[in-house]
Amino acid sequence: MADTLDTSAARFFDYLRHVRQLSPHTLSNYQRDLCSLGRYCESICKDSAEELIESDIRGWVSQLHRRGLSGGSIQRSLSAVRSFFNFLGRDSGRLRNPAASVQAPRKPRKLPKTLDADQVDQYLKFDSDSAIALRDSAMTELFYSSGLRLAELAAVEVSDIDPHSKLLTVTGKGNKTRTVPIGSVALGAIARWLEVRLNTATDCGALFISNRGRRISVRNIQARLKLQGRKAGMHQDVHPHMLRHSFASHMLESSGDLRAVQELLGHSNISTTQIYTHLDFQHLAKVYDAAHPRAKRRKND
Length: 301
Known about the structure:
Layout: H1 5-19, H2 24-43, H3 54-66, H4 71-92, H5 117-123, H6 131-146, H7 150-154, E1 161-162, E2 167-171, E3 177-181, H8 184-197, H9 218-231, H10 240-255, H11 258-265, H12 270-276, H13 281-291
């Protein structure tokens, strides 16, 4: 006769406690997950681990999902159950792991917060003409103008910019190179920064340098953007990804050209751009009203 689920779980916990020597906290998590599975098994009248099949594990996962557990929590529970069945398989040599191919619901990707156009204008106002302020202004303008990643901006060389064609050559993820436009406001901010930068630079190639004359670090860039947000009276911390996302959102809202935004952001797959950018509801409503033949009421209605 096959062991009950409780008996099999007890042997598993002994193994975790004495052989793997897991911490009490980790053991408690395993126990909670297997107790959850045990309660589900009772509800479907199955007493032993050997009775369980893949559809049973899927039913348990669906129950957890309906109860409101996050994808991450369900994934952790599944990991515990997979370890349990792997242990029983090694112990008996004949038990198949019914949880092996079951996946947790995917966690929805949280989009980073964006700034609207008025907030961007508020953020990009610098109240000083010091060298540091000119540099920070040039950095933030370039972030928003070209939608750069943090590492991309830190790596920009002076020679990467072609002021005549208003283009910037960027080296992004996977060492891939792309060319992006630079707006006239960003070009003006960069020109003002270059006038003072040339007097202090020891790293002649880097566009943005610290007050020591070396290429500015990504951590320093993050700190400077956050500080500028506080000076500008923003109600949230501003970070490079927020400016990149604002750039993508505003470009997509204005143009509706997803493929162009994909190229500007340097995404290899357009599905990434679809997740990364979003249209606000008011814009979608305006597009619908303007385009759909039945969106507007007839004059005689």
